[in-house]
Design brief:
Blueprint lengths: L32 H4 L7 E3 L6 E4 L1 E3 L2 E3 L16 E7 L2 H17 L2 E7 L1 H15 L4 E5 H9 L7 H7 L11 H8 E2 L2 E2 L2 E7 L1 E5 H4 L2 H11 L9 H10 L23 H7 L16 H14 L11 H9 L5 E4 L3 H6 L9 E5 L6 E9 L6 H12 L1 H7 L9 H4 L2 H6 L3 H8 L4 E2 L8 H17 L4 H17 L5
Parallel strand pairs: 5-6, 14-15
Antiparallel strand pairs: 1-2, 3-4, 7-14, 8-9, 10-14, 11-12, 11-13
Length: about 475
């Protein structure tokens, strides 16, 4: 995993904005109807020792949630206190709204949820952290949380955990790479993983298992058709499934991805390219970066020309219409593939992105440094991210961050994505957004510009990574790091 960046000094006094990258939003995972239909059992459970009886026990994914009171540390003691939590409209709003009433009942506190449209979310949260200070818990993409952290806008969590967490909270149960990358910045724990995300390879299972297709591949290349594990294998398989290169292909294109400006760097990272190293130095002008650029150009030959106009919805629908054999995308593509009317419903498999360097996305939960309710804010985060709390959020598309959750058979069975998702977290090393506070969005734009110029043929791969390096160096030096 990429090491936490060592930030020593910023001269910037004002807290500058970072735009929310579209690549980090909307990554949904479907769950089974059986898991969704689990209801509360007619048994009683207690709040804690000596407390009044609580509501009916809850059962999710075959597991009775007996520790929602967090080892008895929630027993109505926060009565009269109010917690304000901003959430992005949609899935995040549903997920947090679903658990808030349970937390209110156990804690005695009131949770006020403020729903904010996605395009306004980061700006509104940032404005509050700078000025109005009404928010207590902050849910945001990881690179943005890290920017908040370096500006002193979110609270370090170690002391709060040591003082207030229940004995069984167990931070070692989080997927190791995920917890380190999401949680720590500049040597401090500033966030708890809430929604994991990583790029996956989606492929047409029906095509890869078709005997006639397999025979044709064997005849053409002298080897067995299989789901590609290396970049070289993917380029070859993509070529085979592209009609312009193989007129007998059962589909038009071997490969597709969302390549609208704002997302192209994801393909660069997926192919082994990097942005910065652990010392905040540009790290793309090297053999790996040049190779990644050339691989993008190789895959471009097997992709539709219009992929540079494809954003999230357009690219997902293109694949769901059955036009391509493979696509790399965030987990949310699965819902589009499985929707009624999809040409590939029940025909899609999921694997780790070839090359084992998938791009890492995701959201974390932090506490606003100006919150007047830090203890209560921590208990809410602890509740949502505890072992039992994880089982409450899954059905609202907030996938598990804990290893023990993935080990539950009913969780494993609830989504065909989870095996590949969990394995991918072991390999993911680079965040989707360049993890440099204050200028993350600007550096992402730099990468997008050079990658698209290389795809247009106006510059070479070598010129692209060199240009990125020069502009990164200038922008980072302007922050006057020591």
């Amino acid at each position: 995993m990429k090491k936490r960046k060592q930030m020593k000094k910023f001269l910037a006094a004002a807290f500058c904005g970072i735009l929310l990258a579209g690549s980090l939003s909307g990554c949904k995972v479907a769950v089974s109807d059986e898991a969704k239909s689990e209801s509360a059992e007619n048994t009683q459970t207690a709040k804690g020792e000596g407390e009044e009886e609580q509501s009916q026990a809850i059962v999710k994914y075959g597991t009775e949630l007996t520790n929602l009171n967090l080892d008895g540390t929630l027993h109505g003691q926060y009565e009269g206190q109010t917690l304000t939590v901003p959430v992005m409209s949609g899935d995040f709003e549903k997920a947090v709204s679903a658990v808030a009433p349970i937390f209110e009942e156990l804690s005695g506190a009131k949770v006020v949820i403020e729903s904010i449209p996605g395009e306004q979310y980061t700006d509104k949260v940032q404005l509050d952290l700078n000025n109005t200070h009404k928010y207590d818990v902050v849910l945001s993409p990881i690179a943005i949380l890290h920017s908040f952290a370096i500006a002193g806008k979110v609270e370090p969590l170690e002391e709060l955990i040591q003082t207030y967490a229940g004995e069984s909270y167990d931070i070692d149960d989080f997927l190791p790479g995920l917890f380190q990358t999401y949680g720590y910045y500049d040597g401090k724990l500033v966030a708890i993983p809430y929604k994991p995300d990583v790029m996956l390879l989606f492929y047409r299972k029906d095509l890869f298992e078709d005997e006639a297709v397999k025979a044709a591949y064997q005849e053409k290349y002298g080897e067995e058709l299989k789901v590609p594990e290396t970049n070289e294998e993917m380029v070859q398989v993509a070529e085979f499934f592209t009609k312009s290169q193989n007129p007998d292909s059962p589909v038009d294109y071997g490969y597709c991805a969302m390549m609208l400006k704002g997302s192209t760097r994801l393909l660069f990272f997926n192919r082994g390219g990097d942005d910065i190293d652990e010392n905040l130095k540009p790290n793309m002008n090297n053999g790996e970066g040049i190779k990644a650029m050339n691989l993008i150009l190789d895959l471009q030959k097997s992709a539709p020309k219009e992929w540079v106009q494809m954003g999230w919805d357009e690219a997902n629908q293109f694949f769901a219409n059955g036009n391509a054999a493979m696509m790399e995308q965030w987990p949310g593509l699965w819902l589009t593939c499985q929707a009624e009317g999809s040409a590939v419903k029940d025909k899609v498999g999921v694997a780790v992105a070839p090359g084992n360097t998938p791009t890492l996305g995701g959201w974390g939960a932090s506490i606003a440094s100006e919150s007047q309710n830090k203890e209560l804010a921590w208990k809410f985060i602890e509740f949502m991210t505890s072992k039992d709390g994880e089982l409450l959020k899954i059905e609202n598309t907030m996938d598990p961050c804990r290893a023990s959750t993935y080990e539950i058979p009913q969780v494993q069975d609830s989504s065909e994505l989870y095996e590949a998702l969990m394995e991918s977290f072991n390999y993911a090393k680079t965040l989707a957004d360049v993890d440099v506070p204050y200028i993350s969005s600007k550096l992402c734009d730099v990468m997008e510009t050079y990658i698209q110029q290389a795809m247009e043929g106006s510059i070479t791969p070598e010129e692209a990574v060199s240009g990125m390096e020069k502009e990164f160096t200038t922008e980072i030096e302007n922050l006057e790091l020591e």
